[in-house]
Design brief:
The protein has 187 residues and is an all-alpha fold. It is built from 10 helices and no strands. 64% of the residues lie in helices and 0% in strands. It starts with a helix and ends in a 5-residue tail after the last helix.
Length: 187
């Protein structure tokens, strides 16, 4: 892997101007770094998994109709095929198979991280007091964070072979140390 985190962040900032989407990218990066230890090979996967999380929506703001074509092409030009494939697979409309743990983890962490973030914003204690039970209750409310694909939340956990409640707790735990940076400390 030749891509560095600094190069990835620079590209993200060039293509993504809004703070909210940058925070989402950073949140998914944080969770994917933790996921490398939970579902991957540990330290050897951390950088690649983190950058895949950071870059998965890098082209969404600038080219929403072409997402994720631009970021996938950019990664392939740099011979970063595992990340390109994972980002292709996370866009479920393409029907790309989930060949690796990275592919599965990105699907399992992306939508859920965004949803957990939304849950944090409506709680006085934010991520510090959030529990899986509250997240699962909100998942049933189709009007709450309506753009979150609930089927991807459950499909991701199933692909990884983990209990959804445990996976929600994993995401919360990964985000907690970064709550202030990510704006997840509550209403």
């Amino acid at each position: 892997m030749s891509l560095t985190r600094d190069e990835a962040w620079s590209l993200l900032c060039e293509w993504t101007e809004t703070d909210s989407l940058r925070k989402h990218a950073r949140a998914v990066e944080v969770v994917m770094r933790a996921a490398a230890h939970q579902y991957g090979a540990g330290d050897g996967d951390v950088e690649q998994w983190g950058m895949a999380g950071m870059l998965h929506d890098a082209d969404y703001e600038k080219w929403p109709e072409e997402h994720p074509h631009k970021i996938v092409a950019w990664l392939r030009e740099r011979e970063e095929e595992p990340m390109a494939h994972a980002i292709s697979a996370h866009y479920t409309q393409w029907g790309v198979p989930y060949d690796s743990q990275l592919d599965k983890a990105l699907l399992a962490c992306d939508e859920l991280t965004g949803f957990v973030g939304a849950c944090c914003l409506v709680r006085p204690g934010g991520v510090t007091t959030l529990a899986p039970k509250s997240v699962k209750k909100k998942l049933k409310d189709k009007g709450f964070a309506a753009k979150v694909e609930r089927t991807e939340v459950t499909a991701g956990a199933e692909l990884l072979g983990v209990d959804l409640t445990e996976h929600i707790q994993f995401v919360i735990d990964a985000l907690k140390p970064h709550g202030e940076e990510l704006g997840l400390l509550g209403a």
